[in-house]
Design brief:
The chain is an alpha+beta fold. It has helices spanning about 65-75, 95-110, 135-145, 150-160, 210-225, 255-275, 295-305, 310-315, 320-330, 360-370, 395-400, and strands at about 25-30, 40-55, 80-90, 120-125, 165-175, 180-185, 200-205, 240-245, 285-290, 340-345, 350, 355, 370-380, 385-390. It has two domains: about 25-275, 4-Layer Sandwich (L-amino peptidase D-ALA esterase/amidase), CATH 3.60.70; about 285-400, Ubiquitin-like (UB roll) (Roll), CATH 3.10.20. Helix 2 (about 95-110) packs parallel to helix 3 (about 135-145), helix 5 (about 210-225) packs across helix 6 and helix 7 (about 295-305) crosses helix 9 (about 320-330). It is globular.
Length: about 400
């Protein structure tokens, strides 16, 4: 992916799980948290994998976030399994929530005959409701007697909440005369404004990679994927992205040159799928800011435009309201002279050097009344650039979130 406009470059990802990725088992199905729906996934590494992960920076952090971060530290990045539930965030549930997360990890560890610190747990759903953890552990017990698996697609479905569809992606790369694979799945449609990653994302590779390399590659991939998306400007309490690499003698550090593009392509595909599935969204929007004084200022301007409810509602109505776009750049903190700026929408120049340009309103509306829109802003203050992926904001977003608990 290029940093210029958010379009992928180099490695390509497919929106499907790579068929030949081995080393992991995926079990999924209902445990009774949600009514008549899959709500639990158990991902088992065989044998234990190396893992790098990032977590939400929200000061209100769910019990599974705190436990998984601590287990990852105590276990030195060695992970035997992930247990992920949907329908309940296990957040702001006090000591009972901590006990629920610990009991889930303890049960999984006993069933797999491994240390508790080798288990990561994740939850997503309603905040403030006690987690019925005994339903989870009972399901783990039943699954432990099975020899088969349900597959990554079933796991991707089980972790969904307001998502309208599961999100998967895969890619491959070659190193040392062998082909390796990267697969991932994620959930997220609302409460998306990453300060680390997205709500829940899980990435896997059959390439045995050293932990320091895994951590570095994950940071690089997030910088051009999950860190570049916003749906509604709200950072979740349960955000977690974990990257697991199969066990084995680590590949040489030179593998990073081919692994990172494949990982970034998978992460970018998942990030894009999340934005396309934004709650109530009809349009996928790329915001590109060029000509900023610094990269940090370009980033601030792009984020301000992408987060603006006024910009997002105008895009929902296919309204070429360039004033809202320029105003968002103006309050972002980026330093520029509006007399030198330019605003474009899907290739149509709407504003340039201090004044609106004549344009056909009907033609502009037709250009914007499509599934993909690009807003491009040139600040005329330097050479730095940045981009964000976002979506429009429709009345359906209000309907979904006005009754989320009930």
């Amino acid at each position: 992916m290029s940093g210029r406009d958010g379009k992928r470059g180099g490695a390509e990802a497919s929106p499907a799980w790579p068929a030949n990725l081995g080393g992991f088992r995926f079990l999924a199905g209902p445990c009774g948290i949600k009514e008549a729906a899959a709500d639990l996934a158990w991902i088992i590494a065989e044998p234990a994998a190396r893992c790098a992960a990032v977590f939400t920076t929200n000061r209100l952090q769910a019990a599974p976030v705190r436990l998984s971060r601590e287990n990852l530290r105590r276990g030195g990045g060695r992970v035997r399994a992930l247990v992920v539930n949907s329908g309940n965030a296990n957040c702001a549930t006090g000591a009972a929530g901590r006990r629920a997360a610990q009991a889930t990890a303890r049960s999984a560890a006993q069933l797999l005959a491994c240390g508790r610190e080798e288990i990561l747990v994740a939850s997503t759903g309603v905040i403030g409701v006690p987690l019925p953890w005994k339903r989870i552990t009972a399901q783990l017990e039943r699954w432990s007697r099975r020899a088969d698996e349900d597959g990554a697609a079933a796991a991707a479905q089980a972790i969904c909440t307001t998502d309208t569809r599961p999100k998967l992606a895969g890619a491959s790369f070659r190193f040392g005369g062998r082909v390796y694979h990267v697969g991932g799945f994620a959930k997220g449609a609302g409460m998306i404004h990453p300060r680390m990653a997205t709500m829940l994302g899980f990435l896997f590779t059959d390439a045995p990679l050293a932990l320091p390399l895994l951590r570095r590659c994950l940071r690089q991939a997030l910088a051009v994927s999950f860190h570049r998306i916003t749906v509604d400007g709200d950072t979740s309490t349960n955000d977690m992205v974990a990257l697991l690499a199969a066990a084995g003698k680590p590949l040489a550090p030179a593998a990073a040159a081919v692994f990172t593009p494949a990982l970034a392509a998978v992460a970018a595909s998942l990030a894009r799928q999340i934005v396309c599935d934004g709650e109530g969204a009809r349009r996928f929007v790329t915001i590109t800011v060029e000509g900023a004084r610094t990269a940090a200022e370009a980033d601030r301007a792009a984020r301000a435009i992408a987060h603006s409810p006024l910009v997002k509602t105008a895009l929902a109505g296919a309204d070429p309201n360039w004033g809202r776009i320029l105003a968002a750049a103006g309050y972002s903190g980026a330093r520029f002279d509006p007399e030198r700026a330019e605003v474009q929408a899907n290739g149509m120049v709407l504003y340039r050097r201090g004044r609106a340009l004549p344009f056909d309103e009907g033609e502009a509306k037709r250009r914007l009344d499509v599934k993909e829109v690009e807003v491009r802003v040139r600040l005329g203050a330097g050479r730095a650039r940045a981009w964000m992926w976002t979506c429009d904001l429709t009345e359906a977003y209000i309907h979904i979130n006005a009754s989320y608990r009930t």
